Structures are given as C-alpha cells and as structure tokens.
Amino acid sequence: MAKTKKQKKEFSLLKYFKRYKFGVSVYILSFLIGAVCDMFIIIYSANVVEYITLAKYQTAIFYLLIIAGIYVMRRFGYYMASFIYQKYSIKIMSDLNLDLAKQAFKLNSKTYNDHDTGTFVQRIINDPERVISSFANLVEILFDIITAFIIVIYITTLSFYIGLCIAVLVIIGIIIELQRTKVRRKNNWVARKKNDIIHSITTEIVRSEKDIKSLGLEDKLSDVSKNAYENYKKATYHAQVVDINFFSIRSLIIEIASVLILILGVSMINRGLITLATFMIFYSNRGYLYSFVWGFGRVASLWADIKVSSDRMFAIFDNKEFVCERFGDKHIENVKGEIEFKNVAYTFYEYENRENKNWKKEKKERYERVLVSQNNIFDNLSFKIEPNTTVAFVGRSGSGKSTILNLMSKMYEVEGGEVLLDGVNINDFDKPSLRQAISLVNQFPYIFDMTIKENLLLAKKDATDEEINQAITKASLMEFVETLPKGIETKVGESGIKLSGGQKQRLAIARALLRNSPIIIFDESTSSLDNFAQEEVKHSIDNLKGKSTIVIVAHRLSTIRNVDKIFFLENGKIEDIGTFDYLFEDNVKFKNMFYAENLD
Asked: Residue 530: which domain range?
C-alpha cells in the first residue's frame, strides 16, 4: 500500500486544516492564551506562598488579585477555543466525509467485493471523527505539556540537585512512553480491523432481518455476532491491558521517585541548602512532573491514533488496494448496441492485508497486500451480440455468467483481449458515454427511501410526467401504482421495504427505461420471484424487444424462451449457441437443466 510523495501530499490531513487556517489559528491562539494564563497563575501562586512565609501579607494579597484577573482571561481563552472547535471541527469533518464518499464512488465493483461493508463505513464516517477529536485533544495536551515543562524548569532553577533528579526521571518516563506508543499503535490497528467486521455483520443483520426470521437463523447469527464481538473484545482488552501495564510501571516509578525527591528536599532544608518556601513550591507543584511525562505519552498516543485513522482513511485513495474505475476520453453518442468479446481473459484474485514484520528493515509499508488465491474464469472468450437483439447467457453456477455482465458493463476490467461496443474498445469510452449506453438491473436492485417518482427521477432528473408514465407502463407497473392512494408520490421505505420483490424489479426496469439506454442488462432479475411476479417482469422485458440490446443472465430457463439467441456456458467457455428450441433439441446438458428446473 505504498504511496508516492505526491499522493501523500495530496491526501494529507494538512490540506483540510489549511482550508480553515483562520479558524484553526484562532483555535490554537485561544488555547495559547489559556495556557499562558495557567503558567502565570502557577508562578504567581508560588510567589504568594513565598511572600506568606516572609510575612509580606499585603504583597501576597496583591498577587492574589492579579491571579483572579488572570482566571477571567484564562476562562475567556478556553471558551473561545471550545466555540471555535464546535464551529470548524464539523466543517473539516464534513469535508473529509465528503471527499472519502466521493472517492468511494470512483472505486470499481471488484474493490467492493474484496472488502466488507464495515471497512467503508468506519473509514468514511468514524475515522474522520476520531482524527478531529484526537487533534483537539492533542492541541489541548500540547499546551498542558508546555505549561508543565515551564513549571518543571522553574522548579529546577530553585535547586540544582532537585532539578537533576527531575531531569533523570523525565528521561526515564519518556522512554517508557515511547515504547508504550509503539505497541499501542500496533494493537489499535488490529482492534480497528475487528471493529470493521462487527459493523459489517451488524449491517447485514439489519438489512436481512426478514430472511433471518423466516429461516430461523437468529441463534446462528447470534453466535456469529458473539464470536465477532468476542474477537473485538479480546483485541481491545489486550490493547488496554498492555496500555495499563505501561501506565502502571511509569506511574509507579514517578510516584516513588517523587517521594524520594521530597525526602531529598526535607534533607536539604535541614542542612540549610533550600528554604521552606522553595520546598513548598516544589511540594505543591510536583504534580506537574507527572503531568509532563503523562502529557508526553498522551501526545504520542494521540498522534498514533491520528496516524492509524488517517492511514485507514487515505488508504481508500491507494489505487493498489482500493482500485478505481478507469475510463478513456472518447465521448460517443448514439451507441447502436453492438457488443463483442474478443479473446477475453479474466482471473479473479483474492488478497488480504498482512503485517510485514521486517517492514522497518526492508523500508516497506507495515501492511502489505498478499495474494491468497486466484480463480481463472476465462482464457480466450469470444462472441458477438447484434444491436437490438435479445440474448441470454445460461449455465451452471460458476460458469462465468455474471462475470460476463460485469466485464460487459465495465464493473470489472479484462486482463487480456477486448470488450467492444459498436467496434470501440470499452476502455476508450469516457464515463458519461459508457454509463448512458448501458443500464443494469440486478437480481436485488436497490430502491431508495424516496417516493416512486423520486426513485425514477434519479435515472433522469428532468424526465417529464409523460416520460415517467410511459416507463411505468412499459415496466408493467402502472396497474400497481394506480392502486396506491398517493400514486407515484408514495414513499417506498428504506431499500423499497414496502414493495414486493416483483414490484422492486419492475420499478428498477422503469428506472432503466427512463435512461433510454441502447443496452439493458438483466442479471438474474427473476430468480428470486414467485411465478406470478416472474411473469410480470418477463412481460416487462418482452416489451423492450427490438428497441434496445437486451442481455439476460437467467437462472430459470423458462423465462428465456422468446430470446433471439442463447449462449450456453460451461467452465468459462461457450459450448453452444442457438435459440431455445434448438438447444432443447440438440443439447443434452441444456435439456437436463430445463427438466431439473421444472422438477424443482
């Protein structure tokens, strides 16, 4: 997942903060005011102690009044910092969310197949939030460190021996914190990956609750969820226990050392080497020694968290793991709809991210994409589909039917050979030309939580009511729409939950019709429907014959009786081509598939 220097610069957090440099600057300045006030309060408080021990009470009261004024100024600084944070953190977070979402739209289908849903949800939504909140905490703690550092330096100036002990103690504490941060970053990365899995499982459970209930899968999926949560809990617990161990060791060392320094101070008072006021100043401010070391470690931890989150976010821009769609620069209008595969080769590769234990020595990225399996689908696939014809691809599961559709619509990219539209390589089309030329109706089309009309307008935002009605009629959906009290203004619910499977399919077909694409692809559009819904969708498809190039992947052979040509696939090869009647009479495998389907 290595990125060039140009990529790292382009996709760095810095550019998002630069957009609002005024607000960020005011935020930092406000904290600076608060931090400076804190330092003066502590120093003046030390003076108050000293003047009281010297019986200079009027001077002590004067300094206390100054401290009261500084408190007001400090509160104003922290108030401004909080106000600015609320205003600009949302803007920066929104910019990150939006850019990540836009990049997600550019990724190809293979990339989505290679990653679970949680990977994208976490990186687009949660990681930006973690980065911004960690940055805010980082700024706050940095100023706390500066305050603590100045106080520690102030204390050391009062006594050389006490200062020397403090310096040694700080160095030991920082070494421990550096080691803790190194381990924490590694453990957090593992825990985040486990959390991605939980998000994916939760999303699937929410989306498939009806199937889960109808199939009685509650207990089984509860076990799957339990295992995922257990794995996440173990990873998180391990990370926290390791952190606690480091924290406890560091704290114990500082606490015992602080007591020893106090004993040294008492001994020095007894010998007349320091005054009681000096000892009291150290005694009352010794917590800043702990704060300095703790703050240093906290900064290192927050920086590690920011690094992990930003690496995860901007990995989406890494074209090796998250591969984007690629288009040409030819803008082609009036595509006729001729499709040709010429010696096409395609292999499905499966990768996973693994940690390279020697990444520092080898000067490589910490996590590498490793090939774990590959499946050769096609070696030399060739066929041609004439414009405005209706064809179907059939074959057993795994024969390559859906892969052909993905290559045909450029969801996948060929490794060898060419896919041609009207004699032009599909890779040469620009994005608008290609997307307008092809409409795809999936087995489970996604229907948005909008009205029927709004769902249709997604396909063509300026469609007239007449065009919408024509699309609904051709898709055999008008009879259903007329039964609804609000007609096409009826909301269909999330993922079209208020519609039946057949109604979703026909709405998806109407959506495709509105686009008026010369090529319409149906990917097993009737396989999940009952016989009545299947016939309605089949009738919708029949209405399109001769007007567009129709390509169908069919599970049920009875639905493709009337197509012009059928391609029969076996193990990634076209074994036979012909009409339904021809294949039924001359191809034993095709006939057996038909009988097996009807026996079911």
From this structure: 376-599
